[in-house]
Amino acid sequence: MSKIIYVSAALAALLSHPFNASAASDGDLQAIRERVQQLEQRMEQSGPTPTRNSGGEGAFNPAISLILGETYGNLRQDPAIPATGFAMNANPGHEQGFNLGESELVITANIDPQFRGVGRFAIDPAGGLSAEDVYVQTGALSAGLSLKMGRFLSGLGYLNEKHAHTWDFVDQPLVYATLWDNQLGEDGLQLKWLAPTDTFLEIAAELGRGRGFPGTDRARNGSGAGVLFAHIGDDIGIEHNWRAGVSLHQTKRVDAVSDAVPDLLDTADGVSNSFSGDSRTAGVDLVWKYAPNGNLRDRYVKLQGEYFRRKESGSLTYDINAASPPPPITDSFSVTQSGWYVQSVYQFMPRWRNGLRYDRLDPGIAAVGALNAGNVISDYGYRPSRTSLMLDFSPSEFSRLRLQLARDNSRQGLADNQLFVQYIMSMGAHGAHQY
């Protein structure tokens, strides 16, 4: 195709010289033919003309992109206060005022026909980079198998693998924030099987170091965490598609310290407790999408929800920083906690979307050993919840502006009306996002 273009351009240049077409002799036409033949021969000798793909990972080796994001948050309550009944859990919270937010540098490339490499680095607002995803992934092995090796976000659930710049809301649902510290990341291996069927079906297993919450990162041989998950999905005509999944995660917590935990003795500013034991979490997820006539560009609706249930059992040491006798008390402790969310996003016209999300948590009722029964709260009698409403505008596929309002009732007696304004910008070659 490139040779044809060059020949056509040369012919146009020759014909652009002024002469009287009616007076053109056979010799003139023959000269033009010979000139075109000479140009064709030269291009044949020089070989094919190199071309470059436009966009996507194949355009460069490696493909490099930079995601820029910033958020402004207006909160009435201290974001450091955890959800009621979840003081032993993570609390990523929010930042008040202006915050650099989720900015990341992404480098990806096909290493050779067998391997693909990914390096995704989060930009710390205080300076420096931290490794978020750094892994090597095989192409399809025999029988539909593929292997991922390195540091990666676990494939459990639906939202866990999605990076912050692809979220439909400014923040993660409460159940992800409290049970997974926003997202579960691991250093390890993931083996995935994709079924050779028209219906989408994948089954995967992961072995990890155990560094991701709720695990405890320890320097030892073997693995500290494991994940099993399966997803199935299909199309219904050209307008509907869906995906459902189940997940199971298991790890061990060792001397996991929680600070400012409320207690029955009403200790000022709470106490610091330590927990060691097993942690097992099961979850289900469902996503449904609808686009009139299959046209996602103009309008679509996405409805999704997830539920996780975690049981932790082991031993709890009360008030590990006690300054005077009696010494810290250790006794048995177990609790089952859960949470879920449901959300819908509606693109009502090209580039404009709105969304509604409802979150809810259940702290459960803990079984506390007799020695700590008078120290530790076993039943908080409160279920944290939150309602969020968002509106965003995407001037192009590389930029998004978002406004979000939330009524946060995750902390008993501390209702919070929250406002967030956010921008997300993408520069460079960036691969397609997952379903």
User: How much helix, percentage-wise, in residues?
Assistant: under 10%
Shape: globular
Task: Name the beta content range.
Answer: over 45%
Structural class computed from helices and strand pairing: mainly beta
Can you count the beta strands?
A: 18
Q: Give the domain tally.
A: 2
CATH topology of the largest domain: Porin
- Report the C-alpha radius of gyration, rounded: 29 Å
What order do the SSEs take from the amino end to the carboxyl end, as H and E?
HHEEEEEEHEEEEEEEEEEEE
Supply the CATH architecture of the largest domain: Beta Barrel
Main sheet overview = 16 strands, antiparallel, barrel
Counting DSSP H or I runs of 4 or more residues, the number of helices is: 3
Tell me, what is the CATH class of the largest domain? Mainly Beta
Q: In what order do the strands lie side by side in the largest sheet?
A: 1-3-4-5-6-7-8-9-10-11-12-13-14-16-17-18
**What is the name of the CATH superfamily of the largest domain?**
Porin
How far is the N terminus from the C terminus?
A: 35 Å
Unreliable parts: 1-24, 43-55
Instruction: Please state the average pLDDT score.
Output: 86
